[in-house]
Amino acid sequence: MKKRIIFVTAVLIVCMAALFLGADGGRRDGQGAKKTSIRIGLLLYRGDDTFIGTLRSSIEECAKEYEQETGVKVTLDVMDAKGSQNTQNNQVERLISLGCDALCVNMVDRAAASAVIDKALAAGLPVVFFNREPVEEDMNRSDRLYYVGADAKESAVLQGELLVDAYKKNPGSLDLNGDGKVSYVLLEGETSHQDSLIRTEWSIQTLKDGGVPIEKITGGIANWERSQASALMEQWILEYPGQIELVICNNDDMALGAIDAMERNDVSPGSIRLVGIDGTPAGQEALKAGKLLGTVESDRELYARAIFEIAAALSEREAVEYEKYFWCPQRALAGGVR
Amino acid sequence: MSNREKMLWCLGAGILVLLFLLSSTDLIIKEQKREVYRISVIIADSRDEYYVNFKKGMDKAALNFQADVNFITLYAANDEDQQIELLQRELRDGAQAVVLAPVNEADMLMRLDASRPNCPVILLGSATLNESVAASLSVDGYAMGQELGRQVASRAPKEIPVCLLTEGLSFTGNADIYDGLRSVLDEQGFTCRLVERQEADTYRQVVEETVYPGSGRITIIALDTAALSETADLLAASSVYKEHVAGLYGVGCTVGILNHLDEGIVTGLMASSQFDEGYLSVRLAVEAIQGSWPGRQNALNFYYIEAKDLRDERYEKMLYPME
Q1: How far apart are CA A241 and CA A217, in angstroms?
Q2: In sequence order, which residues have a C-beta less than 8 Å from that of residue B59 and are 6 or more positions away?
Q3: Mean of the per-residue pLDDT values of chain B
């Protein structure tokens, strides 16, 4: 009798296990077949950030090319978190419920990636993070998590080298008042963004290593924003009249903001040198116009292509041709300011 | 083991099975399913930069009406064949309604008649309807053209010729605006010249001609958003051009165009609420799916706006809508 009870219990357990597996197995049906359409969620920390905006356009172009080349329909759901991590978390939930095959996430707060990863992994979705790198522990939680970005140290070193080259060719191009030192102000991005800290540190270090005699007047956090940079620069122009020779900016938007402030205060373009990072279209325009001394451009097309191709391959359950971390190549662009 | 113990074992196992069925399956407790409406929006452009406010309205309506909206741009702007292909693809893929901004309304209506789509189609920018179209949403292009004509006539000097720029009169809505505009300008005695885009720098050539020795100044009216945006950018980039253009008027607005209006590069423009257009288009599509037949022709209001109006609360809400 005892054996019979054990047998009945075992049968019940097997039945329940089969039911569980059956429920899960249904989701896997058809995975072997080639998909005719894929749906990718693209989550942006802030849609009005110039660099992110141009990256988004490039990703959309990649999706169109992919559709034309493969005949696979691509639905790209673009969502703007407007700087709110809570909003982004809700957007992740919405995209999962809409049946996305993969998520491309530009985190608002890189330290909050675990919540996004939890949701995505629970739904069986791969995630391609970009521009804002989650911490390593989060990235190691699954082999279906990828990161695409530009190496912040490389950007900063290129920015620094650009200034070192200019100084070596002609010290007067940076030391405008000829006092033997280059007096600079610093416009930094968000404090919570790893790139901001690294760009600042290595740009200054490269200048020092290159033998440029620098002296910091002041610095401020402008959160990557043109308007905030403009307000800070305006304040410094009034506070340190004729003293600022160089403005080192963590990105192009902030450099453009500083230029706006200079123009508003009738400071001639040649009297203060500015350098940025990103090589945005607006930044490159300023470079051509001689308002910007230099910027560092990452290969935006390759950047966007990597994000899209990883997401598409994961959506179609094909082999991904990229490493877990993809670092986009960069190059320095020097302008004609003399 | 006693019978009582056996019963308890069986009861325990039964409770486990019941709990599993309750919590993890639909067999006992049916989860209420909320239907999500699949709507595709196909525009006539290859980029969405003229649709920023439209998309805000569309997204708002998607949340309110539980719609899953797929916003689709063409591979090449104003490519009719591609638009038809995409329309057919969306129908094949199970879209429950399609919102369509046709490249050419007349051609699209003929093609829709021939293909008889199996779901409601909402047309944007077109007031024309037939059996294949559930509803339309547009401004009255002729009336808008007339209003713009009246505003130009009251401001621009008659002796200065007027140049009308457009991406093409065959594109949806442009011919109506043109007719309305001409009806007023001709009556007022203005000399008008129509220029349709032929190549990439058509508009630049028109502005460049004014700089040649012996050429006089011109007033420019752009009949569509693309023409207005490009011409404003051209004038903004050159102080020489600005001296030779007596005024730049047009139809449509983007953040870039509004900045140019604020800077005085654009003199005045006709605009309607793109947010409302996006919101209403999705609402009409949902209503059509639900079978509550929407009003067939839906008109949007239009307004003439100058730089001084940008801070007016009424226009500010329309031009810079919050999400």
Answers
A1: 12
A2: B69, B278, B323
A3: 90
CATH 3.20.20.210 fits B37-138+273-300, yes or no: no
Strand partners, A253: none
Structure tokens at B52: 């920023």
β pairing state of A325-328 and A273-275? unpaired
Report the relative pairing of strands B218-222 and A325-328 from DSSP bridges.
Answer: unpaired
Residues of chain A positioned with their CB less than 8 A from the CB of B323 = 82
User: Are residues A195 and A276 both part of a single domain?
Assistant: yes
**Which tokens belong to A21?**
């597996």
Residue A11 lies inside a defined structural domain of this protein? no
What the block records as the tokens of A44 is 């942006």
Question: For A9, which residue in chain B has the nearest alpha carbon?
Answer: B13
* Residue pair A45/A82 in contact by the 8 Å Cβ criterion: no
Q: What ipTM, to 2 d.p.?
A: 0.76
Is residue A260 domain-resident?
yes
Contact residues on chain A for B47, CB-CB shorter than 8 A: 57
Asked if residue A196 and residue A133 are part of one domain, the reply reads no
Contact call for A20 and B24, based on CB within 8 A: yes
Domain assignment of residue A242, given as a range: 152-299
Contact, A274 vs A293, CB < 8 A?
Answer: yes
The residues with which A139 forms a beta bridge, in sequence order, are none
Does residue A157 share a domain with residue A293? yes
- Mind telling me how many Å the CA of B91 is from chain A's nearest CA? 13
pLDDT band, very low/low/confident/very high, at B280 (cuts 50, 70, 90): very high
CA atoms of A276 and A285, how far apart (whole Å): 13
Do residues A286 and A308 both lie within one domain? no
Contacts of B36 in chain A (CB under 8 A): 98
Among the partner-chain residues B13, B20, B323, the one whose CB lies closest to the CB of A9 is B13
pLDDT in tens, chain A (338 residues): 556 666 666 666 665 555 544 444 333 344 456 788 999 999 999 988 889 999 999 999 999 999 999 999 999 999 999 999 999 999 999 999 999 999 999 999 988 999 999 999 999 999 999 999 999 999 999 999 999 999 999 999 999 999 999 999 999 999 999 999 999 999 999 987 888 999 999 999 999 999 999 999 999 999 999 999 999 999 999 999 999 999 999 999 999 999 999 999 999 878 999 999 999 999 999 999 999 999 999 899 999 999 999 999 999 999 999 999 999 999 999 975 43
Query: Is B76 in contact with B109 (CB distance < 8 Å)?
Result: no
Residue whose tokens read 């790893």: A194
* Model confidence pLDDT, tens digit, residues B143-176: 999 999 999 999 999 999 999 999 999 998 999 9
Is A2 among the domain residues?
A: no
- Report field, pTM of the whole predicted structure over 0.90: no
The letter for the amino acid at B222 is A
* pLDDT tens digits along A115-135: 999 999 999 999 999 999 999
Collapse the DSSP code of B7 into the 3-class scheme (helix H, G, I; strand E, B; otherwise coil) and give the result: helix
Choose which CATH entry (3.40.50.1820, 3.40.50.2300, 3.40.30.10, 2.40.50.140) describes domain B141-251: 3.40.50.2300
Unique residue bearing structure tokens 């420019």: B220
